[in-house]
Amino acid sequence: MKLILSVIFFVAGSVMLLAQTKTIEVKDAQTKETLTGVYATSQNNKEDYRITENKILKLDIGKTYRISHIGYSPRVLKINSFTPEVIYLEAQNTELTEVLVTGKIFQDPVMNITTPDLTERVSQPKNVADLFRDINGFGLIKRGNYAIDPSFRASQYEQLNIQYDGGTKVMHACPNRMDPITTHVMPEDIAKIEVVRGPYTMRYGATFGGLINMVSKRPEIGKYGLSGSASTGYETNGNSLVNMVRLQYAEEKFDVVGMYGYRDFGNYEDGGGREIPSSFRSIDYSLRMGYNFTSLERLQLHWRQSFGRDVLHASLPMDSDYDDSSMLSLDYFKKRPGKTLQKIQAKAYYSYVDHLMSNSRRSNFNTVEAVSPVEATTAGGRFELEWKLDEFWTLFTGTDALLISRDGTRNRLIKLNMMGMPITPPLELTDKIWQDSFINDYGFFAESRYRLNSSTVLNAGVRYDLVRSDIQDPATDFQAYYPGLGSRTEHNFSATVSLKKLLDADNQLEFAFGRGVRSANMIERFINHFQVGQDPFEYIGNPNLDAEVNNQFEVAYTGKKTFDGAINRLDWGASVYFSHFENYIVAIIDPTKTRKFMPNQEPLNPKVFRNLDEAYKTGFEASLGVNFLNNFQFDAEAAYVYARNEDLSESLPLTPPLRSKFSLQYNKNKFWAATDLRVVSQQDELATSFGENQATPGYELVDFRLGYELFPGLNLGGAVLNAFDQQYYDHLNFAFRNQANANLSGMERLTDPGQNFTVFVKYEF
User: Fold this and answer.
1) Distances (CA, A) of 285 to 266, 325, 514, 594, 659
2) In the chain, is it the N or the C terminus that has fewer CB atoms within a 10 Å radius of its CB?
3) pLDDT digit string (tens) for 412-428?
4) CA distances from 647 to 170, 487, 612 (A)
């Protein structure tokens, strides 16, 4: 009898051991098709990752798993003997605007940054500068309080691939960049910014120094009915006022979002109490309509207009009388789970900028009256197919186009001669600015993502760009410089390869190499004796420039660790990169040419754009975050870049110094507060050929911010910016120009705002 019982217990125990795992198949809830590439993350042990093998998951009985798949709402499931052998995931509403798939370790591009929700924790009126100032590695090129360009790792302008909502672009009309892409959108409409830190993706247009995608705020999934928000903010320094209203109506099939914003910024005072001409007014509105054919298929139309008025640019020779822009985009998206062709994406867009600048408010207006109407048209789109070649292999193929055209003139009325005597009648002259030029870029790309094992992903991509350019109404002297002017075609090849390795659930290592190619922009090709730089030189374009090439290699490491004591969590990260440039484009003084306008005024020789033979940059970013005592968070960040022009034995232009930021935050229930300390070092690595002749001093800034939810939906915010009224300027700021009326020296850099008290109120319903 004992022998029989022993056998029974042995057999039962063996059966129980065999039953410790359960096989589960995961299907689409709508199509009932089996999903591959499904992740099961154990909630009991963070190091336990499971991935579907042969279309099934083998999960341990007694454990709890989070079952997830890209594009689907995840499910948390406790495995027991009653758990069904087939479970279903619901497809999320289609996403049209993102480049990154944040938090999906095997889908995210390498070397990426994503900001938190920029519409949350607002404590002061937002300007375009606020979109980038808190992202590690970024600086701001400022010509006033309106014309602000982001700079990333000493790359700027068209070296950065800046776009809205996964591909929409708006190019500036003004040769002095009074209207960069960031001025044509309401900052309150930007929910987050996605950054790929180098030429590591081929899918979103030609990328040289990095990809920046500004993502518009969109209807929340499942938030149906009428909702919206209204906000108002005020700044004491400049008596600046910002108002915004957002209304949204959504159903399962249809949604519409409308926004209206009004901004009225006055002249600010710097830390020395001087008034800086920087006022502007702008009105923006947008309308976005979407229709969901199913939960897997969506069509979206987006219309946006912006109207700038009386914009003062302290560091440019003229001001903007008006700056009007219109943008229209149409997006289509379809998912096909379980199919080899898994996704289809298509986008088409058109934008138009109408810009008028004049010197009517400047000291030289009595001598010469100048008015410049200019316009820019940008059109394009992209079409992409996502293929699931097998469970671990995804391929993206597609094409895109970027078509840019510009025209405009400067009309001068010369009223006084060089001796200060009146000219009767005044002399009328017309100068061709853009010379009716265009640049068309047609791109073709393929990018593959292959999962080598459960912890390693290999990514590789190639891209070909066919670039056509032409100047259709050249000035006589420009045609004399370049007798062979005409249509030009360029063939650019880009490529990338990267490896992402999960060392464990909390640590990640990334390696990436990218070759990014950028053809010369319209200023570098076709500008003709205009002051478009940081200095008083006239600049001449060069239509024969070779395309710039950035060969960039980068290594990055990120990690995190949680604790049970006073310290709750640590987050850390660092990346180191090196770029070797080919044909880097800079403007160099040409002693064989002479100044065209006001020929007796220094400097006598203009600058002409040309390619460098040898140039490079290297640098790093590092960050540390500490969550402690449940409600406190401390963050430290640093970024440094060293750039070198070996041809002229000097730095490359607009290279920022070492920047550091330290932030202490407190958050409990409805209240939050933060103190930020920014430390910027002196910059003595200068590009003298660019006009950087003096080292710029370092500075420290302290900001205080706080917010409180008075009751559900109503949030109050306040801030003290530059709390100690520091007088400072950044190395990337341009110098004052043509500001004799304001008693500001033309040799001095634009100084930033002094102490500023702000208040912000937002109501959501």
Assistant:
1) 21, 11, 38, 46, 35
2) N
3) 999 988 888 999 999 99
4) 34, 30, 6
